[in-house]
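Figure 3 (text version): structure tokens given as input.
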């Protein structure tokens, strides 16, 4: 009996321990059924459209971070939403024309001085200006200059159309006769226009800031420089009435000098396009606390082709031709060197700022019978303040 009871006890214990793990497993599984764990549920595969959308915004975010991220040791980001200032803009322009005999003459219009307020929100701005030097004169001049600066890239958009207030500022005759008596004479026989766009990339934009020098949207804290590379397109048009210049020269200097610039092959009208690749270097020098001096120069290898041209041929016959912008007929003689210079000095303590800057463009064009050089630029003086502190810069 003792052996029988011991055998029954051993079997009972063995059965108990054998069933208990299964019962525990069943209990846990029952809990999982009553409260399903969604993390274990299989996910729906993403569609091609969803994957493409996700990859696009991921790549866009990475590009934005790479382009607009700054090294805060060198550059202080803008702390404010809005900007207001008063500015005065002076414009300058000059055309020099040289013929194949060595005669040279330079024309400059009366400069303009525009004064007015300017308000900016982010990259959007609006300004109102009055030309103080042409309040009482009827001048047909039209000007539009806009330079747009971001950390990685910059853009120049400009349009200029001459008025009727050109003056002769420098004359050189090939025969070395003194023609200084013509300097300062008014001349309304020249018409010119230029329209163009420049775009350039700033390689070291994490440490070098163009906006710090030219639109005060950032502040340069430590000196830095950067290489620049860009492309450009311009269209030029120039008309000169040589008969009017002939009459003016004859009246002032006498009949012996009446035909100096009216030879057989002097052009009357030229229109040409300009495509360019540029490279240069800019440097921001922080020479004192809150002070910055910026200097940059870019040289452009430009390919120019005439769209229309007319010149006085033999016996006064006008020869018209159209070359067009066709690179199949590439000529090295159509390559010239142009340039853009930018200079600025600014004081900026993040809230208040004041400064001045100068931007100059130079273009050259040459043909067998003449050469032209066009220089134009603008000089700005300004003072203003920032307001509307951004949320992340507010004191807690």
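Below: residues designed for each position.
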């Amino acid at each position: 009996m003792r052996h029988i009871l011991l055998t029954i006890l051993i079997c009972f214990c063995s059965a108990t321990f054998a069933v208990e793990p299964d019962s525990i497993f069943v209990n846990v599984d029952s809990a999982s059924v009553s409260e399903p764990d969604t993390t274990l549920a299989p996910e729906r595969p993403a569609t091609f459209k969803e994957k493409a959308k996700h990859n696009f915004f991921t790549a866009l975010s990475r590009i934005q971070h790479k382009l607009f991220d700054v090294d805060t040791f060198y550059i202080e980001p803008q702390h404010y939403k809005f900007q207001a200032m008063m500015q005065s803009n002076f414009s300058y322009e000059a055309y020099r024309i040289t013929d194949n005999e060595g005669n040279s003459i330079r024309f400059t219009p009366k400069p303009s001085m525009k004064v007015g307020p300017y308000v900016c929100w982010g990259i959007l701005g609006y300004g109102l200006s009055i030309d103080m030097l042409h309040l009482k004169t009827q001048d047909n001049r039209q000007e539009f200059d806009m330079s747009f600066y971001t950390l990685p890239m910059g853009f120049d958009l400009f349009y200029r159309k001459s008025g009727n207030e050109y003056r002769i500022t420098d004359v050189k005759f090939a025969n070395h006769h003194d023609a200084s008596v013509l300097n300062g004479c008014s001349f309304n026989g020249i018409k010119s226009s230029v329209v163009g766009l420049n775009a350039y990339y700033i390689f070291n934009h994490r440490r070098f800031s163009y906006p710090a020098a030219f639109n005060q949207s950032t502040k340069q804290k430590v000196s830095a420089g950067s290489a620049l590379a860009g492309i450009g397109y311009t269209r030029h048009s120039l008309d000169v009435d040589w008969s009017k210049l002939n009459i003016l020269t004859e009246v002032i200097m006498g009949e012996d000098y009446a035909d100096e610039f009216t030879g057989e092959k002097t052009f009357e009208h030229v229109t040409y396009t300009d495509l360019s690749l540029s490279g240069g270097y800019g440097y921001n020098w922080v020479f004192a606390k809150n002070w910055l001096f910026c200097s940059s120069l870019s040289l452009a290898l430009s390919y120019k082709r005439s769209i229309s041209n007319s010149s006085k041929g033999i016996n006064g016959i006008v020869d018209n031709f159209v070359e067009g912008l066709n690179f199949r007929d590439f000529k090295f003689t159509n390559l010239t060197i142009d340039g853009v210079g930018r200079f600025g000095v600014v004081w900026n303590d993040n809230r208040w700022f004041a400064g001045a800057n100068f931007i100059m463009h130079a273009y050259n064009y040459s043909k067998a019978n003449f050469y032209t050089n066009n220089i134009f630029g603008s000089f700005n003086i300004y003072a203003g303040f920032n307001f509307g502190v951004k949320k992340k810069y507010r004191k807690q």
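The longest strand covers residues 267-288.
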